[in-house]
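Lab notebook: predicted structure, single chain.

Context: the supervisor wants predicted structures on file for every construct in the current expression panel, including those that have not yet been purified. This is the next one on the list. No modifications to the sequence; it matches the entry in the shared construct table.
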Amino acid sequence: MNTLIQRFTQGDPEAFDEIYKLMAPRLKAMAYRYCRHADNASDVVQDVLAKLAAMSVEARIEHFGGADDNLEGWLMVSVKHRAMDFVKIEENGRKKSPEVRSNIADQTLNLS
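Prediction complete. Output recorded below exactly as produced.
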């Protein structure tokens, strides 16, 4: 895995593909623990991996170039936090939805 991370930090796109294949199943399982929906878990993983893929070579070296830096740990923590954010957003949307509907219903005039 260290050689793979070194190739990734140097900008090798094939290394990213290999990291994706190795890590995606575990990352999806982690996200599913929080989201409890397979499609949402996949979306969370895609968000995090897209962020990783969009990093510049300089940022990759800064974050993962050292001997103590842990790409796998970064991915797991990032997916966990993104999944938790996703769940919070979903819950807040469900809580506010009835309130918004009742306010709109109270403000509109029924002319029938």
